[in-house]
Amino acid sequence: MSERSISLRILDLKFILGELEEDVVKHMRGQKAAGTRIRKALQEIRTEAQVARVQILKEQKDPKFPKTASLPDWYSDAKPKAKRGSTRRRMPRTEGWNALSEHLRF
User: Fold this and answer.
1) CA–CA distances in Å: residue 44 to residues 13, 28, 50, 86
2) Is 101 contained in some domain?
3) What pTM was computed for the model?
4) How many separate domains does the chain show?
């Protein structure tokens, strides 16, 4: 059984979270089936996170584990860019969460 890299597992977790946005809105409107889908997805996240934790521990204990490794491409793109002279860094918000937060305002 070949193990997937941690970066791919994190991308899977992000994907699962992204799929939840629409169901969260439906759940807030009172749709019971959306709540069931949310709970199922959260269970998948929990399971995937546990597998990733075990894999990280296994890699850390392995003497052949590389001490220096190159970062995945998506990591450098996701890092926030600070303005010149600014000490505060801000993460850009994704459009999906902006739409969700706009929708949930009363």
Assistant:
1) 9, 21, 10, 39
2) no
3) 0.56
4) 1
Residue with tokens 């052949």: 64
User: Would you tell me how many other CB atoms lie within 10 Å of the CB of residue 48?
Assistant: 15
Q: Would the CA dihedral through 78, 105, 21, 95 be positive or negative?
A: negative
Question: Is 20 within a domain?
Answer: yes
Helices (H), the chain: 6-28, 32-61, 73-78, 95-104
- For 48, the token pair is 């995937």
Sequence length of the chain is 106
**80 contacts 15 by C-beta, under 8 angstroms:** no
Q: Which two tokens stand for residue 105?
A: 């305002």
Could you state, in chain order, the average pLDDT of each consecutive group of 10 residues for the chain (106 residues)?
A: 74 88 93 94 93 90 73 61 56 55 56
